[in-house]
Structures are given as C-alpha cells and as structure tokens.
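Structure in, sequence out. Go:
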C-alpha cells in the first residue's frame, strides 16, 4: 500500500536535494523530510513500546503541534506506525474523548509554554513532548535507514462542518491516499515541477492535506505561509498553482493600495469554499491572472465541479466533472427536471468518505443511496451546469465559513424583540452575497434595531430584513423553513 511516507521515501532516494516543502520562506528537502519523519517514528516507538493498532481497534494519535512542518512530520510518523491521526489547534477534552483508543497526544517543546489544560482533563498521561534534540543534525546523522510504513498504516482525520455547522470528523484511510493524490493532481493540472501555494491551510483542512498528498506523490513542492500575511508571499510569485478561499480574494482586492497587484499570466488560481463577488473576480483577471477556476465540493466527497471563470455566469453555474455523478432530487429522492430546485447529492466514489466518525445519526442523514447529500439546494439547467442556491439545513455559508443558525437566530430574536426569527444566506444573480432575515412580528422594526441586525453581518454584500405576521407552518405546527426561504428569495428576486 502506497502512502505519503512511501512517496517521500522514494523521492528522498531519487532526488534527495529537491525541495519538498517551503514553510514561511524556509525550504526543506525530501531527504531531510524523510529523516525527520524517521527520527519522530523512532521516538514514538520508544515511548509506545506496547502500541497495538488493528483495523478493529485502531489506535489514534492526536497531534497538536506548530509549525506545520513539525505537524506533517508527526502525523506521518504516527501513521507509519499504524495509528490514525487527528491534527488539532488545541488539546481539548471534547475532541480527545471521541476516540476509544487514544495512544498519545503529541506536542512539541514550543507548545509546552502555551499549553493550557482544563482541571478535569483526563488524558494527561497520554501527552508526549517531542524534544527538539531529536532533530539536531548530529542526531539525524545517526539514522542509518528510513523505513517504509507498517503493513497497516493509519489514516488521517479531517474536520468538516459543511452539512450541519457542527464539528464532524471524516477519516481518509491509507487505502485511498493514492487515488486521492491522483485525482487532485489531475484536477489541479499538477506535475513533478509544480510549485503549489497552499496559503495557511492546516492538516485538518481538506485542501491542506490532499494537495500535500498530490505533491508528495509527484515529487513536487508545496509552499505554505503559516501565521503570516499571505500577500507578500503571493506577490513573490514563486509558484504556479494556488488554492484560495473567498476571504483571500477579499484580501487581495482590499489590500491593493499597500500591495499593488503583480501580473502572473501563467498562474493557475483555484477558488473554492463559498460565494464570491464577480466584481472582485474581474479585478483579479485584469490585474493578476486570467486563469481562474471556480471549484466546488466537500470534505466528505471531494471536488465535483470546476469551472473556468470568464464571465459572471461561470461564477454562478458550475461545470460538473465528466466522471462525477451529480443529481438534483426532491424530498422523495427522485431526480427533478432541469430548472426545478431540489437537493444536491453526489455519487460516492471509492476515493471519498462514506461516514462521519462516531456519529451514526449524521451519517444516516447525509450518506445514503450510495450518495453524499451535500446540504445544498441546487438547480440544473439544460446544458448540464448546476447552480448552488443555498443550504437545505440550518447552516449559514458566509465567505469561507459555515455557522449553525441556532445561536445566530436566538441573537436576532433578542435584538428584534420578535416571536421568531430565521436567517438564510445565498449568492444572488449579480454574484453578490446576501443575508436574508425573516422576523415573525406584527410590529414595525425600529431603525436602530434594523441597523444592529445588519451590523451582525457586515462581512457580506447585502442584508435584507422582512417581517411576517406569521411564518408559514408545517402540518406539525413548526416553522416551514423551506417555504419561508422560497418566499424570501422570490421577493428579493422581484425587487432586484
């Protein structure tokens, strides 16, 4: 079975001096990367002499390490020993407690100074501190061989909140890493000479992990700018591929006075993770690169659409990959005709996830009929392109982030003093991001309260507030969010 460590070891022998990773301007060669993974693996073996990890009782290593190079090293070393891994920003009980067999919680010396554990943290005996000394050149010279992973290498957990707005974990097992690497290399048009700028993505993020896999398999280079303003690195232009979130486009556009744009006509720029204003896209194509692609997908099921952006229509309507099966279905899971709104589902592939870890309820709701239900409402037009209209569930998609609406609607209700409140997000026909707020009240909303509500969503292009004496209700007497959403969208479309 080939994994990231297998590929790193291969290139360490074939092209030892080639740069594998550039972190905050510092380059690290494949040979060095292979050696520090081996040094970490030896340390873990010494600290965990009785480690047992089987497919039926998989041990888990929690990795809470900065900087990213050290996190990659620890993740790959633990996986080489057969452990599954989860990379986190902080050591917290609610994350650790999800796993029945936690073998270790790995931190390094720089984290010790800032580590703050709750009084009731029950896993202190699992904490392992990686000493900096094991990476000293003299220590690395004692490594005589770099070993392949064990017969049953572990997988890596990725974090997702796409379907519910609540933290979910998705395991990418070692058995699908090769296919994932191939798919994303193909999607990104990557090759052995590629230099991919992964911004500030971390290893819990889908983009930060899978594009790293593709790079390591190809023997190319990934560039990461962790904890720093990405604009100076971006405009240095020492890469040919980059994946941006909508918030990064905002920063490019808004930061133009301090960092004037630099033309990079050969750069391929992929944008994903939310709605984007086309005015800003036009600015990028005019000033930086014409090679912009809009990608759409999910951590659970990977990208299933990629569209080269040449006009506003390309930003609204997604071109589905030829090999992906995407359906728009009604409440009975029956495909709807073109032009009819429905739920978006994507056919499972053998390189995608099929469940949420330790969450059978959410798994049953979103993985069934051999498909993943993304949580999006969508419509297909006659040429096969698909437009994402908004969320099925109670989740707001704002810029690159998803938020559970429950706490937000409670705050809206408190501010407005209304009986009930619902909030929805969408991208309108002019590519502007909108928040639509519905208030159930017979009173007129005061101007000050309206201003306070709009201030809550200052990061979006437009906020619209509509009052209703009574919300539409289901047969059970609950607010019919689907019907209410339809009323709001139709009203706003009529006013546009």
């Amino acid at each position: 079975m080939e994994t990231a460590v297998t590929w790193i070891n291969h290139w360490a022998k074939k092209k030892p001096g080639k740069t594998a990773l550039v972190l905050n301007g510092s380059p690290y060669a494949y040979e060095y990367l292979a050696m520090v993974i081996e040094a970490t693996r030896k340390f873990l073996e010494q600290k965990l002499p009785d480690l047992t990890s089987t497919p039926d009782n998989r041990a888990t290593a929690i990795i809470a390490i900065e900087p990213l190079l050290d996190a990659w090293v620890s993740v790959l070393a633990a996986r080489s020993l057969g452990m599954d891994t989860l990379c986190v920003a902080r050591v917290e009980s609610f994350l650790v407690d999800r796993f029945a067999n936690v073998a270790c919680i790995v931190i390094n010396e720089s984290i010790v100074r800032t580590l703050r554990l709750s009084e009731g943290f029950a896993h202190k005996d699992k904490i392992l501190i990686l000493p900096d000394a094991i990476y000293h050149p003299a220590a690395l010279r004692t490594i005589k061989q770099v070993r392949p992973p064990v017969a049953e290498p572990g997988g890596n957990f990725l974090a997702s909140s796409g379907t519910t707005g609540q933290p979910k974990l998705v395991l990418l097992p070692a058995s699908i890493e090769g296919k994932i690497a191939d798919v994303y290399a193909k999607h990104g048009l990557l090759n052995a000479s590629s230099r991919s700028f992964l911004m500030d993505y971390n290893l819990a993020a889908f983009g930060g992990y899978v594009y790293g896999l593709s790079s390591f398999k190809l023997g190319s280079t990934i560039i990461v700018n962790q904890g720093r303003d990405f604009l100076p690195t971006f405009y240095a232009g020492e890469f040919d591929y980059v994946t941006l979130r909508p918030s990064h486009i905002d920063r490019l556009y808004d930061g133009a006075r301090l960092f004037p744009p630099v033309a990079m006509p050969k750069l391929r720029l992929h944008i994903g993770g939310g709605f984007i204003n086309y005015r800003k896209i036009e600015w990028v194509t005019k000033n930086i690169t014409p090679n912009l692609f809009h990608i759409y997908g999910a951590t659970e099921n990977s990208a299933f659409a990629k569209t080269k952006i040449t006009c506003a229509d390309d930003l609204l309507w997604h071109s589905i990959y030829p090999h992906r099966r995407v359906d728009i279905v009604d409440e009975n899971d029956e495909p709807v005709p073109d032009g009819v709104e429905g739920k978006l589902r994507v056919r499972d592939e053998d390189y995608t996830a099929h469940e949420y870890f330790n969450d059978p309820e959410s798994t049953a709701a979103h993985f069934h009929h051999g498909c993943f239900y993304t949580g999006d409402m969508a419509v297909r037009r006659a040429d096969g392109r698909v437009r994402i209209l908004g969320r099925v569930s109670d989740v707001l998609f704002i810029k690159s982030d998803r938020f559970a609406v429950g706490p937000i609607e409670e705050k809206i209700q408190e501010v407005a003093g209304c009986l009930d409140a619902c909030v929805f997000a969408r991208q309108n026909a002019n590519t502007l991001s909108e928040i639509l707020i519905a208030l159930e009240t017979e009173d007129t909303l005061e101007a000050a309260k309206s201003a306070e509500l709009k201030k809550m969503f200052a990061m979006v292009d437009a906020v619209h507030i509509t009052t209703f004496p009574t919300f539409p209700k289901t047969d059970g007497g609950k607010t019919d969010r689907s019907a209410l959403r339809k009323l709001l969208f139709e009203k706003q479309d009529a006013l546009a």
